[in-house]
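Protocol step 4 of 5: obtain the predicted structure for the target chain.
Materials: sequence only (see below). No template structures provided, no constraints applied. The aim of this step is simply to have a reference model before the mutagenesis design in step 5. Sequence pasted as it appears in the construct record:
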Amino acid sequence: MAMKIRLARGGSKKRPFYRVVAADSRMPRDGRFIEKLGTYNPLLPKDSEERVKLDMERVQYWLDQGAQPTDRVARFLEASGTLTKTERNNPKKGEPGQKAKDRAEEKAAKAAAATEEAAAEE
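Step 4 output (C-alpha cells):
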C-alpha cells in the first residue's frame, strides 16, 4: 500500500482549513485516511504558532514506514527540521505562455515591417 502524508481540506467555502493526514495514495483527497497527524490553517498569519500543528512523533513514524509527503507537507516538515531542505527550481515559471509568445512575434514582425517601410521611403 502506497502511503502519503498529505492535506485533507475542511472548512466552508472560502474559509479553508486542512488536516494533515496519513492516507493510502489511492483514496480521494478528502476521503478515507488512516491517521490524523496535525492541522494547517492558512488564514492565520505566517508567524502564528497555531498555523501549522503537527504530531512530530507520528509523522516520523509514518516517514519511517515509507510514507511520502506531498510538496506542501514536505515544506512544513522542512520548516520544522524533520526533512532536509531540497532545492526547488522551476525555470518555466517566469516564461510566457504560447499565445503571449505568438503575440510578441506578431508585434515584432509588424515593427520590423514598419521600420523597413520607413527606410524605403527615405
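Step 4 remarks: The CA atoms of residues 36 and 54 lie 9 Å apart. DSSP finds three helices and five strands in the chain.
Proceed to step 5.
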